Amino acid sequence: MEFHYRTCNLCEAMCGLKISHENHQIIKIEGDKEDVFSRGHICPKAFALKDIYEDPDRLKFPLKKTSEGWETISWEEAYKLASEKIKDTQEKYGRDAVGLYHGNPTIHNLGTNLFGPDFFKILRTKNFFTATSTDQLPHHFASWLMYGHPMLLPVPDIDHTDYMLIIGGNPLASNGSMMSVPDVAHRLEAIKSREGKYVVLDPRKTETAKHANEHLFIKPESDAWFLMAFAKEIIKIKTDCKLPDYVEGLVEFSKIAKEFDTKSIEQITGISQANVTRLAKEFCDAESAVCYGRIGVSTQQYGGLCLWLINVINIISGNLDKKGGAMFTLPAIDFVGPAKPKERYDRWRSRVSDLPEFLGELPVSVMAEEILTPGEGQIKMMITNCGNPVLSTPNGAQLEKALESLDFMISFDIYLNETTKHADLILPPATGVECAHYDLTFHNLAVRNTTKYSPPLFNKAEGAKYDYEIFQELKNVHLGTEEAIITPEQKLDLGLRYGPYKLSINPLIESVHGIDLGPLKPMLPERLKQNINLVPELFVKDLERLKSDAKNLMNMEEFSLIGRRNLRDNNSWMHNSDKLLKGKNRCTVWMHPEDAKTLNLQDNELVNVRSSVGQICLEVEISDEIMPGVVSIPHGYGHNRKGTKMKIAEAHAGVSINDITEEKRIDKLTGNSAFNGVRVRISKN
What we know:
This protein is 31% helix and 18% strand.
């Protein structure tokens, strides 16, 4: 028996694993108790690494669609076909006729993360879309406007805080998100054990809320109102507030907050003014405190305002860059480094809906219309990379029709799924335990500064290709060059040597449990790219939209739809694992008993859930853990579409919530999709 140590790459937590193996077989996967970051913690998703490695449905060689079905072809033929189709399309219709989509797994795969951009940049298309605008784009938008860089993302110093306010986040199910935090359950419990407190605001009594000191129901999409009222109370309490010289706009923000009418706060949010005042006092009285918001606040119509106000709250309460507050990381490979502030917004716009780009990408909500709408600049060819947007983007049924209409489509993926089945060419890389790994992004979001490299456990299949090989070889074919193939280790070594700790790859290879670089430390103003701006003009102007929509937030004639995550789910791409999917049906619609009684519904009864764009049918699950007027459906299901090859996923198909989410429903400021708060009607099947 041999042992292999690596970091799990299936979510953001970066848990260290100890894998027992023999004769090219995984015998056991357990938490690495010596890992410097995760401390032996492991979640159920890690066990799926074995399922993925052994999965007979996993693709390993290029597939070409023919009139007779799918045909396995050589890598040389695949590269030639891909390059020819790209060149033909761009020569005939222009550069922007090729569209690109990057899915969530892109960031979890080292070779794709390092070498994918080098290939995609040479295509020079403005029709670039990623999962960012279905997820965390408001976080980056707020950091860019306030701190000068989209990756200057404050992280809760959870290990030292005395008070944590969690709004729209469920770290016990997500293992943290935009906050890499393994063993989060024990870390949250530690807050209580040192006589601190953590409070959860959510329309559902989530797994995290059940263990919190306090949970308050809040109406979907009303969070910005609560946060403004909360900030208003902090200003009342902190009358002698003195902020560092590098913080600008306190007087202006104080004026905005005082004049913001929050008299109807309870009617809008469901939270009384008395509770707002009490929570603000508790927050300010704590030795250290931090406000943290996630999916519930970022994937809604006011996501940008929410993330702005969360930052403001941490700043004006004196908890930014403070032990136990919101702090910045200093990773061994630093995305921020010496970068200078630059324009990253509205440099071009989408052709049909005239929406601005941010960070070089357009909102994913316009992807289907850019394919379906004729005219100059229409997308004629799509390239999808590590993604399943048919299930993960709004109005997936519309996108499915759009993909079917393309002249040609290429997918980089390991599965024949609901999206890649529309492709004409699939290029599957080696994956999981066959690959080296380093978390470039999540070390930038970690609650402690550490660094760790994971070598491959097993060799890839004979004739298979690593993702870094595919992108470099395809680039050579496309450009007619013969550049030598660079390995991820070579790039990592360079990044480490130029990083703040002046490391190299060799110490990381030798340190199988990782290297501890210490707790988060105060580092402002040196880490900033500009003085902190409390009142960016774009946010201040957007408050008028929030005010004008107040009546709509109070109108609850229809049900308000929110998502739901289970610890064993990881979007749509982990549903072909028997270990993760076993157990009772999780794809149900949660409804409060009072609402079920009004509609004369019984537990497990089939219901139709209808929105302005579609209808789905699924079982109702009656629970008092969701507030009246709100219903919840999990994300990532809908494996009932023909033409896929994912046997286990198909056996637990469920339905896709994104067949009823609306592509036109976005945060108008940032362009992020507004999944939460979609109005739906429910009836018996």
